[in-house]
Design a protein that fits this description.
The protein is about 10% helix and about 30% strand. It is mainly β and about 220 residues long. It has one domain: Jelly Rolls, CATH 2.60.120.590. The protein binds N-[(3-hydroxypyridin-2-yl)carbonyl]glycine (MD6) and fe (iii) ion. Fe (iii) ion binds next to loops. N-[(3-hydroxypyridin-2-yl)carbonyl]glycine (MD6) binds next to strand 6, strand 8, strand 12 and strand 13. InterPro entries: Alkb, AlkB-like, AlkB-like_sf, Oxoglu/Fe-dep_dioxygenase_dom.
């Protein structure tokens, strides 16, 4: 019996770039972001240093348990006025930090592998989950153009991604996402309901008790 230094209980499967189908227009790219995860996380830390993670408030007045920030030309924001994309960070009044080229390149590669060549993301939402944090079923529909897919990158603790259908009532698939896994949904799946089950406790070698999810969008 041998042990591979790079395979541990948090992400046991080898990277496999062959798309794993979830639904028409939706795939999982297992481990695509794993080999350069440390460099990707350094880029994310630089974004967080410039635009700190914060808990946004929903239009209904609830504070979200996921901590968020953004990079790129536009950032997703929520407040009493609603959900929208804004070119400036409401905390600073300054533009969001630029999208780091390594993050953009990963999103473009993932989209191309999923059949969406030419994806040009202008927004990257950074989400930080700690154990117990969940994201209820929702559609991503604040973007102007649903012709572009969503690219979602998972780093740190594993999560159970809930991937449903076009109606909220449809029972979602439960997909385990490990460190480095990437999900792409577009085309006929672009408006699929999705969410994240409550994060289980754990201790990730790079991120400790946290999961970071990056979602790349063409927002403007
Ligand atoms: C995920 N996240 O964390 C999927 N959508 O795997 C999302 O679908 C998402 O984290 C909109 C806003 C924030 C999110
Ligand atoms: Fe979403």
């Amino acid at each position: 019996m041998t042990f591979d230094l790079f395979d541990n209980l948090d992400d046991p499967a080898p990277a496999n770039p062959a798309p794993e189908p979830l639904a028409d227009g939706a795939v999982v790219l297992r481990g695509l972001a794993r080999t350069n995860a440390e460099a990707l996380l350094a880029d994310v830390q630089a974004v967080i240093a410039a635009a700190p993670l914060r808990h946004m408030v929903t239009p209904g007045g609830l504070t979200m348990s996921v901590a968020m920030t953004n990079c790129g030309d536009a950032g997703w924001v929520s407040d009493a006025r609603g959900y929208r994309y804004d070119r400036t960070d409401p905390l600073s009044g300054q533009p969001w930090p630029a999208m780091p080229p390594r993050l953009r390149a990963l999103a473009e590669e993932a989209a191309a592998l999923a059949g969406f060549a030419g994806f040009a993301p202008d927004a990257c939402l950074v989400n930080r989950y700690v154990p117990g944090t969940r994201l209820s079923l929702h559609q991503d529909r604040d973007e102007r153009d649903f012709g572009a897919p969503i690219v979602s990158v998972s780093l740190g603790l594993p999560a159970v991604f809930l991937f449903g259908g076009m109606r909220r009532a449809e029972r979602p698939q439960r997909v385990r996402l490990a460190h480095g896994d990437v999900v792409v949904w577009g085309g006929p799946s672009r408006l699929a309901f999705h969410g994240v089950a409550p994060l289980a406790d754990g201790d990730h070698p790079l991120l400790g008790r946290a999961r970071i999810n990056l979602t790349f969008r063409k927002a403007l």
